[in-house]
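BACKBONE STRUCTURE TOKENS:
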Amino acid sequence: MAGRLSAASDLDKARRVIPLPREDREGERVASRQISKAQWLQLERHAAEILQQMGMRLDSPATRATPRRFIRALFDATNGYDGDSKLVTAFPTECDGGPDCRVSQIVQGPIAFHSICEHHALPFFGQAWVGYIAHERIIGISKLTRVVRLYARRFTVQERLGRQVIRSLERILDAHGVAVYLDATHLCMQMRGVREQQATTRTTFWRGAYESDEALRAEFLATCRTAVGTVVANG
């Protein structure tokens, strides 16, 4: 009897899952990049040539496989291009039309991310905060992390990363409002050029209710700053 009740409960939960329309599933593209064995070898030869010209010796036990490791690491660091098959469903909200449906925020962060700047092919990394005001859909909180990392693990720039995250969440959630805050360190500023060691780059993105409601923006940013203070204190 208990088994039948459990099965019935699971079936009811399954019925409450909302499959996303095809146009809302940009991140679900899971056609993995195809690189043949011959292409891998060619890439490794190019990498070896670059590394040697920059001064690295490739004739020691520690460095003989470095060109291969470098190419494989770069491929892994950009696997956002392969999509994420788990970004395919949302769930109905449970706010029942009350104030929770209009002003209550769901905020997730800090979400650690790493990316590669397309200008110099050097990493930038930091933390993201994502907030939204649910309308008819919600998603599991782990999916917010998945959306950020889906677009971060590519060659990109911070401004585009924020726009892609917020547009994707708009499509998935059809929310009253969506907010994204990114705070990142760029190695292209630290390792070359100006060689600035302390500055970070912060960008904000607003959609829906956040665009017109200053109090919502202030509450979201205050939540982000509180989280930053907690991380620093615990660190």
User: Anything to note?
Assistant: The two ends are 50 Å apart (CA to CA). Strands lie at 18-19, 89-92, 106-117, 123-133, 137-138, 155-156, 177-186, 201-208. The longest strand covers residues 106-117. Residues 1-15, 17-24, 231-235 have pLDDT under 50 and may be disordered.
